Amino acid sequence: MLKEFKAFIAKGNVMDMAVGIIVGAAFTAIVKSMVDDLINPIIGLFTGGLDFTNNFVVLSGEVPEGASLAAAREAGASVFAYGAFTMAVINFLIIAFVVFLLVRYVNKIKDAAAKQEEEAPAAPAGPTELDLLTEIRDALAKK
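Below the sequence we write its predicted structure tokens.
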């Protein structure tokens, strides 16, 4: 069973997937910072300083006016956090767009490599088996 597990782990697909998950987790931190530190302030400029992450509606419970979403949740209130959802959608769209750009770039590189292979001159074809047999026959006939 240990040998089977080692064979499973050693397969290229499993290792590629593990690397992808690790890089994806690190990439998520970058995108979160980009949304929180770059996109939100720019959106806030156009919306008069409105920060979407703290937009919510209290469904039930007591929340002091002007409290943040975290404070409302900490107070045990039931909240409809549409701002957090909006930011999650923006985050998803940014990630999807960046992944699209990466896949597009990788596909262009693959297409260029395939095109180079097609354009590369083929190695000169050697004589066929029939040509060699004919040559041997003719050589033997001369003797």
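Helices lie at 2-10, 12-46, 69-74, 82-119, 129-142.
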